[in-house]
Design brief:
The complex is a heterodimer. Helix content of chain A is 62%, strand content 2%. By secondary structure, chain A is mainly alpha-helical. Chain B is elongated and about 80 Å long. Chain B has two domains: 211 residues, Rossmann fold; 73 residues, 2-Layer Sandwich (Alpha-Beta Plaits). Chain B is 38% helix and 27% strand. In chain B, strand 4 and strand 5 form a beta hairpin. Chain B is of the alpha/beta class. In chain B, helix 3 crosses helix 4. Classes of the chains: A mainly alpha, B alpha/beta.
Amino acid sequence: MATHIRRPLLNPILVREARTRMRGFRPYLILTVFLLLLILSTFGIYQYMVFQARTGMVVLSSHIGQALFKGLAFTEMLFIVLVAPILTSGAISGERERLTYDMLLATPLKPGQMLAGKLIGALSYLLLLIVASIPVFSTVLIFGGVELRTLIWVVLLLGSAALFFGTIGLFCSSLFGRTTPATIASYTLVLIVCGVPLLVASIWPQFSNPMGQSPPPWLLYLNPFSAIVAVTTVTPATFQPDMPFFSVNDPFMVVPFLSQFSVGIIRYAPEGPVLMPVYRATLLGFWLGTFVLLWFSSHLALPARRWRPRWSDLGFVAAVGAIALLMWVRIDWWWIVPPVDPWLMPMEPMPMPVPIDPAPVP
Amino acid sequence: MTLAIETIDLTHRYNKKLVALDRLNLRVEQGCIYGFIGPNGAGKTTTLRILAGLLSPTKGEVRLLGERLTTRAAQRLVGYMPDFFGVYDDLRVWEYLDFFARCYGLRGARLRQVVDELLDLVDLAGKRDAFVQTLSRGMQQRLCLAHALVHDPPVLLLDEPASGLDPRARVELRELLRTLRDMGKTIMLSSHILSELAEVCDAIGIIDHGRMIISGPLAEVQQQLATGARARLRIARESDVVLALALLQRHPLVSAAGAAAADPRALIIDFSEALNEEQCAAILAELVNAGVAVSEFSARSENLEELFLRLTANTGQANG
């Protein structure tokens, strides 16, 4: 007879995920599509740069490296945003549909462990995608031009986005009983986070009063694409008004569709163009959002008495509190106060013409 | 001896309105197979889910082996097999058991040993490396039963374990349940296939509208509820049927006698009380002495199915 039950040393869900994640053709199909997309992006960007050079533009080797890095990081982010929710949106609802949820709940496994196992399983697959993309990324090394700091920021953003968008899938999976509504709800949330701010930012100048104002940076704080574009955009060390800041070599600034992703990232001030570092708020926002959604999911996954306080809530409160405290202490680091658009600056008053006394009539 | 399962005034309401269990008192002895019978919606699954620690009762108390029920105690003492169980199609048979064994904290050599022993017990050692989706329904049922045994629980709760099984798989399951009982496990199972329960159970409980109607050892329950007995006899010559019916209808112990619809030479006789063997022999002698050629005579008591129908019909009428 079982006299006592030990806690599992290794999360059983994670062990199961590790065993089954690469079974069947689907994981390999996703990996192939992902790598093909990256190779096509690399080839497209390179051809674009060569075309610019042929039309007489000054294209340095570092320009090609920077454009390739930006394009590949963007494609990777796009893929993470699209794939992470689908990897996790069946985590709990799938167990319910498969009628295995009761069997799991009858074991000492806690819903939190289930969520953690599923999330780590999905993240490890995304990590595999990122690692598999290293050979394609290494083409950047041929041309150079990317700082180590930028590389670290991109890796941080990609990892945090995988965590955040994976948690969106988990949240919807815990909320809905079936996987199809959970997946639809996940993508609706993804659209709200990624698409709506870009759309609002692009029409902001038309509807602002007075017209022509730049969109406020907070609108783009949670947008992963704006963050990637902002972190990979290179600002000139010194401003030379006679030289254009935006190189026509940067497809994200000039190609019509891609330029939508750079909306609101650059402001023009009298002393030159200013980059909006929205990626700082993106990083903190993703961390905060991940813990809040995980907390909701851990309660929604319970079969009964969902909202009764639990000891695990203290962990979530500590994590969310720590991030909130960090954000409050370092608000000047991530909260952007944009410069006022030059055309909205109050003009110096024109000197009133001094009235000329009429010459005395002799 | 401490009871394996005991519930005291167990009550459960869904959404504060629908009463699923109404002061249910249940007593299951250790080491027996207890059949839990009731129509759909009677509260069988709710009871089993409460005993498995998956549902908190609105009121009442549950004791497992004398220990007050908590989620932790249920996880330790109970192996639960739900009525609609799922399997992970993408897992192999041994991986399926390995997964659940890990959930109970088993590891290393002990983990491998438990998986091997359980595969032998449920006769799936030959399918060890097969994918779960390739198993037949009966095999999947046995695998699911094995999953409930990974932590060696003293109490097994099986919700409709025989549903959807073919006759051979049912016989195999019955044998497996007897083996488990011999190993000292207490098994509580719900089923609609009452003939199955009659063959395998030591005790039964009949539940309807969340209330226990009757509970106890099978023979005792049948005896307690015996309202009479029934006999079937077959007449060799059709010309004797009328005479036989006339004689039987005049007999003081016979409450009703009539020809069976499918066979006009077969007579069904209902007695007003349970008869002993001598009384049966006397009736038979009376018929033979009157010149009736009797080719078959068989007396039988009410079976479990009839008992269940009679009891649940009574409560249905009382509630209606």
